[in-house]
Write a structure and sequence with these properties.
- By secondary structure, the protein is mainly alpha-helical.
- Among the domains are: about 45 residues, no CATH class; about 90 residues, Orthogonal Bundle (Cytochrome Bc1 Complex, Chain D, domain 2).
Length: about 200
Amino acid sequence: MKSIKFLPIKLMQLVLILGITIVVYWGVRAGLDGESAAHALPEFAARTGEPCATCHVNPGGGGPRTLRGLLWAARGRPDQVPELPGALVDPQITDGLELYDIACAGCHGVSGEGLLAIGLAGRDISPAAARSFTRDGIPELGMPSFGEQLTTEQLDSLAAFVAELSQGPPIPREYPLPPPEFTCRPTAAVPCGGD
């Protein structure tokens, strides 16, 4: 007799779950009918009329977003990227390595080895040249200018880091270590050799 009482409750739960599923499905479908489908790179650049470097610190579109890119995404990715002049990253970030990771590593490599752009390691670039290249860009090589996106302090710090990075070979990603040497010192509790 008890199982007969619970049958309607289980049936009602099943009908309720099915009803909610149908309502959610049709609600999502109805919401998408009037809107364009989601876009992925490089379609965003074509839709907004802006290069990938507008929203990403990497000119190719990868890596972290610029402040303009973050604002654009927060506004629901409209067809026009909002204006936010003079900002790439938080002006309080002044460490050369951190700035290099944000603005340069995507093209020049994490250790200056070169990826989409030339390798910087071993090029012997002066701080003045690094500052000039970073500030003005090199349009014929596809390097964007960051002059209006970095503060003077950020530009100086980044240029000094790039100049230092360019003085030697690429920073190794790993350092080989000698194999460990284990010695056994027997104790009363732990004899050597596993005995």
